[in-house]
Amino acid sequence: MPLTMIVTRDVEMRYRGFLxxxxxxxxxGVYVAPEMSAAVRGRVWSVMTDWWSALGRGSLTMVWRDTKxxxxxxxxxxxxxxxxxxDADGILLVKRK
Length: 97
What we know:
- By secondary structure, this protein is α+β, with helices and mostly antiparallel strands.
- The chain contains two helices and seven strands.
- The protein has one domain (4-96): Alpha-Beta Plaits (2-Layer Sandwich).
- This is Type I-E CRISPR-associated endoribonuclease Cas2.
- It comes from Paenirhodobacter ferrireducens.
């Protein structure tokens, strides 16, 4: 169960209430869970996606460890251009799709 991080920007307070019920808010708008299962992570992101689709304000970025992805990291975003992590000769870069 890998570390999961969600960063919120300019979103309604409902996100904060929900996210603090399942994660630690280590800085304003930055939430971490040291051992979140894939099932819980999927459910949390599903709720975030539904809310963001209905409200359409702000942005959310979720990052977690995925051993099958470049750099062992995966990124999901809402309200920002989609991004991927690429390995450029051993240096990890974030590429907008």
